[in-house]
Please model this.
Amino acid sequence: MRIGFAGLGAIGTPMAARLAAVHEVKVWNRTAAKALAFVAEHPLASPAATLRDLASGAEAIVTCLPTSADVAALLEGPDGLLSGLAPGALLVDCTSGDPATSRAIAAELAKHGIGFVDAPLSGGPPMAIKGALTVMCGGSAAEVARAEVVVAPFAAKVTHMGPVGAGHAVKAVNNALLAINILALAEGMVTLAKAGLAPRAVLDVINASSGRSFVSEVLVPERVLTGVFPRLFRLALLEKDIGIADDLAREVGVPNSVIASARERCRVLRASLGEQADYLDPYREAEQRAGVELRG
Ligand code: NDP
Model:
């Protein structure tokens, strides 16, 4: 299959690598040097000079950018995706985006006979490298079936959630839950450390008890207790995701004080830690505020 890939970021790069191993792939990145470096490492892939070039002859485009607004901006202009895409092509948007903008993108593409599926991911770069991401799709049954073939090289589980925007809605709530677990466990762990308890022993008991989560079982032991803190997912993106979940709850009229207050905490942390901070850096911030270290 001829695929154009836009967005060689932390997770886009291993996804594009999986695609390039089995399909004819062109890559485009806003910072062109990253596309050239990618092609140097993956000689079967080729670089696209423009988005129009990326789209020309492509059966599918895969996008993986920070926001849906960033994806929408790629469509327009004399060198935009729309200028190169042929009727019958499909845009598979793996961005963790927002449902309303995706519906607008899908409507615009439909005028040109081009399909759209929102296909956000869960799993992170290590799972992308293994081809083990979870993908949640929004779109028509026929277009999601086509998207399943496109994402297969990097996905272990693909689920059709509903119409366009449904994938983004589920992803936003998933990441709201992730953010809440991160923030709540950071508060709980530094509280117990400050009370004189050993972090490793505390976590071992939590992980054999009802308060455990993916954050307590995987993220904190591997990245906080070890002090490794790899930079795999920007806190700014998690803040964006919980914002989408909060906005969605308001849009459908559901009271959501827990998500709203965690959103506000993420906003404050993003502002103080910066755009490049990792999503587990709030642990270091909590440690500093409490005057303890969660290692062991
Ligand atoms: P990064 O910040 O690492 O990379 C962002 C990518 O988007 C870069 O290629 C960047 O280009 C490009 N980009 C940024 N702004 C624009 C723009 N306005 N126009 C065109 N290109 C742009 O992000 P990730 O790869 O981590 O995340 C990408 C998406 O995947 C996000 O929606 C994120 O929420 C989601 N996601 C990320 C996961 C992770 O673990 N990292 C896990 C699951 C989902 P440039 O090189 O020029 O900066």
Summary: Residues 7-12, 29-31, 34, 64-66, 70, 95-96, 121-122, 124-125, 232-234, 237 surround NDP (CB under 6 Å). The longest strand covers residues 155-162. DSSP finds 14 helices and nine strands in the chain. The CA atoms of residues 127 and 133 lie 6 Å apart.
